[in-house]
């Protein structure tokens, strides 16, 4: 079964996904260069999806203890897969390359990405598996979420009333 986020399913039909914007000067330049060479380097065979994911998809009816949640920021349609409410496969929503940072150098909306970290912290997950690098523990996600929430003046870690 092929699943895709509603916001990005159109790319499966075109065979090309634009490179997200850079969050640093160097990565902005790389993103711009990637946009110029675009399809000639990054095109893939188009395909259709079997099921679209909105903000939330629960696969327990299909016999799996898996939820898929929208975690936009890296791109508008980024999603994360929550397994047994313990492990989150987060793709490019986080980066596991640097020892004390999970911030990715490519994100279309960095503030929204930090909000997505907050959403992931509302799960019981203790292990986060990024698309690049090593596994990330909950404590590092909490620290980074607090740090960037202050930077962007976000109140995402406040208890809900």
Beta content: 15-25%
> How would you spell out the order of helices and strands?
EHHEEEEEHEEH
Portion of residues in helices? 25-40%
Oligomer: single chain
What is the CATH fold-level name of the largest domain? Metallo-beta-lactamase, Chain A
> Tell me, what is the CATH class of the largest domain?
Alpha Beta
* Overall tally of domains: 2
Total number of strands: 8
Helix/strand/pairing class, anyone?
alpha/beta
Per CATH, which architecture of the largest domain?
4-Layer Sandwich
Which homologous superfamily in CATH is the superfamily of the largest domain?
Ribonuclease Z/Hydroxyacylglutathione hydrolase-like
Strand order in the sheet with the most strands:
3-4-5-6-7-8
Q: Output the number of helix runs.
A: 4
Tell me the Rg in angstroms. Answer: 16 Å
The parts where pLDDT drops under 50 for at least 5 residues are: none
Give a structural overview.
There is one protein chain. This protein has 161 residues and is an alpha/beta fold. It has 2 domains: 3-42, no CATH class; 54-151, 4-Layer Sandwich (Metallo-beta-lactamase, Chain A), CATH 3.60.15. Helices cover 31% and strands 19% of the residues. It has 4 helices and 8 strands; from the N terminus they run βααβββββαββα. It has helices at residues 9-14, 25-42, 110-121, 138-151, and strands at 3-5, 51-53, 56-58, 66-70, 79-83, 87-91, 127-130, 136-137. Strands 3-4-5-6-7-8 form a 6-stranded mixed beta sheet. It has a two-stranded parallel ribbon with strand order 1-2. A hairpin with a 5-residue loop joins β7 and β8. α3 (110-121) packs across α4 (138-151). It is globular and about 40 Å long. The N and C termini lie far apart (38 Å). The mean pLDDT is 93.
């Amino acid at each position: 079964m092929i699943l895709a986020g509603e916001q990005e399913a159109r790319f499966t039909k075109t065979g090309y996904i634009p490179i997200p914007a850079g969050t640093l000067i160097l990565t902005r330049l790389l993103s711009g260069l990637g946009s110029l060479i675009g399809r000639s380097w990054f095109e893939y065979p188009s395909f259709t999806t079997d099921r679209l994911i909105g903000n939330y998809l629960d696969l327990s009816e299909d016999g799996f203890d898996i939820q898929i949640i929208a975690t936009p920021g890296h791109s508008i349609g980024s999603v994360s897969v929550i397994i047994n409410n313990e492990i989150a496969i987060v793709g490019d929503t986080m980066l596991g390359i640097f020892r004390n940072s999970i911030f990715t150098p490519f994100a279309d909306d960095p503030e929204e990405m930090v909000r997505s970290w907050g959403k992931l912290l509302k799960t019981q997950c203790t292990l986060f598996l990024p698309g690049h690098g090593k596994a990330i523990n909950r404590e590092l996600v909490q620290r980074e979420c607090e740090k960037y929430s202050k930077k962007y003046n976000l109140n995402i870690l406040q208890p809900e009333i």
